[in-house]
Amino acid sequence: MKIHPTAIIDKTAQIDESVEIGPYTVIEKNVTIGAGTVIASSVRIYGNTQMGKNNRIYHGAVIGAEPQDLGYDRNSETGLIIGDGNIFREGANIHRGTKPDHPTTMGNNNYFMGNFHVGHDCHLGDSNIFTHGTVLAGHVDVGNFAFISGVVAVHQHVNVGDYAMVAGCSKIVKDVPPYATADGNPATVIGMNAVGMKRAGMPPEARNAIKHAYKIIYHSGMNTSQAVAELKKEKMTKEVQNIVEFIEKSDRGITDHR
């Protein structure tokens, strides 16, 4: 292992021999870090954090800190589970869960830019991009391949769907459905994330099916429940099925259309 002599590592931490750890970094008890991970200087990784392979953590990041929840029991052994290939840039701040059986979780290949905050009990999928200075409150769920721009505030218990895009400086108080673009304060849906879908290699027929679904949801004059029922009468692509299932699971309701 390449461990700087000023690093402080609890004896219970399980760290693969290929891991690099920079100066003045602190790693607490019961932390697991997988192969190929590189940890820069002055990073703090709190207890009960499980981290997979090939993650990269930049200077000053805080991983697995206590939840900012007034009801949190400090004697409770709660945790954070991180997959593989994630990048945490300078000052990123990730909080662990509030209950032992409810850790904060994230998948693989997510990119967290500087000073990004993930609150307690969040669940993040794969290949999302979270840009500078944005905050996710507690209990936020984000799917896969979403793009959340800078200085965005996401309200607690909000869901952001697959391939959704949130524009900079937005205030998100309702669920952002898959493949949609949201902007504003409070945010509204302003269209589809066409660029994101094209970059992902989504074929035209899939994009057209999504466009048709959102015409029914937002422009048919039906309420959301009626629109979903109408879509379910049709032969749905997997993308439209994803939209329908997302809406049916929504507790806060989906973001309105501008």
Low-pLDDT segments = none
CATH topology assignment of the largest domain: UDP N-Acetylglucosamine Acyltransferase, domain 1
Count of domains: 2
Overall pLDDT confidence: 97
CATH architecture of the largest domain: 3 Solenoid
Radius of gyration: 20 Å
What's the N-to-C terminus distance?
54 Å
- The shape is elongated
What would you say about this model in short?
This protein has helices at 194-199, 204-219, 224-232, 238-249, and strands at 2-3, 8-9, 14-15, 20-21, 26-27, 32-33, 38-39, 44-45, 49-51, 56-57, 62-65, 80-82, 87-88, 93-95, 104-106, 111-112, 117-118, 123-124, 129-130, 135-136, 141-142, 147-148, 153-154, 159-160, 165-166, 171-172, 180-184, 187-192. Helix content is 17%, strand content 27%.
Features of the shown structure:
alpha/beta; Udp N-acetylglucosamine O-acyltransferase, Domain 2; 2 domains; 11-stranded mixed sheet; 4 helices; 28 strands; 27% strand
